[in-house]
Specification:
Protein name: DNA-binding NarL/FixJ family response regulator
Number of helices: 11
Order of helices and strands: EHEHEHEHEHEHHHHHH
Distance between the termini: 36 Å
Strand order of the largest sheet: 2-1-3-4-5-6
GO molecular function: DNA binding
InterPro entries: CheY-like_superfamily (IPR011006), NreC/VraR/RcsB-like_REC (IPR058245), Sig_transdc_resp-reg_C-effctor (IPR016032), Sig_transdc_resp-reg_receiver (IPR001789), Tscrpt_reg_LuxR_C (IPR000792), WalR-like (IPR039420)
Organism: Streptomyces thermodiastaticus
Pfam families: GerE, Response_reg
Number of strands: 6
Radius of gyration: 17 Å
Structural class: alpha/beta
Oligomer: single chain
Length: about 220
């Protein structure tokens, strides 16, 4: 079972997320938190695999709670819930090691998929939210980021670039392996090398770097 912590200051939101997640046979909502401080304490004291954090919460906001959970319970994978108006916060969250993000109005099945992906150690980038985040990168500052990203990617081999491009699309190791005709274990090895070469803490950071650089899968 995937053990989930749901943190949101709105009881109805927490109840809705609980109802959706517990409809899946392999997911159990083992704890809820009303604010960021409670979320950190619960992640530290409770056996949790995935934490779902709202960004706008009292006591500690979701971004601060994310950083604290990374310190006191690094084994917990954190997904950030967001709205379109919080795109810069999403980038900051991913930069702090979040396992991914999705929108509060996502379809129930997408929420379940995101939790499963995070629990499996994969990044989850909501397609709709990703498009909006990418829109914010179309700026002068984005040009500099793109140049820096392409410079960093120059250290990768052609095969590593192919794997990274699929990470940028949000594919799991298994799906990337099927696309590239490689075993899941081999893809995992490539991902480890990529993270080391790019000095990224996790797959999501690498995926965003790929997007900054404009890297696309072959034929994409």
């Amino acid at each position: 079972m995937i053990r989930v912590l749901v943190a949101d200051d709105e009881p109805l939101i927490r109840a809705g997320i609980r109802m959706i997640l517990t409809s899946a046979d392999d997911i159990d909502v083992v704890a809820e938190a009303r604010d960021g401080r409670e979320a950190v304490e619960t992640a530290r004291s409770t056996a949790v695999d995935v934490a779902l954090l709202d960004i706008q919460m009292p006591e500690l906001d979701g971004l601060t709670a994310l950083a604290e959970i990374g310190r006191v319970a690094p084994q917990v994978r954190v997904l950030i819930l967001t709205t379109f108006g919080e795109r810069e916060n999403v980038l900051r969250a991913l930069g702090h090691g979040g396992a991914g993000f999705l929108l509060k109005d996502s379809a129930p099945q997408e929420l379940i998929h995101a939790v499963r992906a995070a629990a499996a150690g994969n990044a989850y980038l909501s397609p709709a939210a990703t498009r909006h985040v990418v829109d914010t990168l179309a700026s002068p500052a984005a040009t500099a980021r793109g140049e820096e990203a392409r410079r960093r990617l120059s250290a990768l081999t052609e095969r590593e670039l192919q794997v990274l491009a699929l990470l940028g699309e949000g594919l799991s190791n298994a799906d990337a392996g099927a696309r590239l005709h490689m075993s899941e274990a081999t893809v995992k090895t490539y991902v480890s090398r990529i993270l080391t070469k790019l000095d990224c803490d996790n797959r999501v950071q690498a995926a965003l770097l790929a997007r900054d650089a404009g890297l696309e899968p072959a034929g994409g």
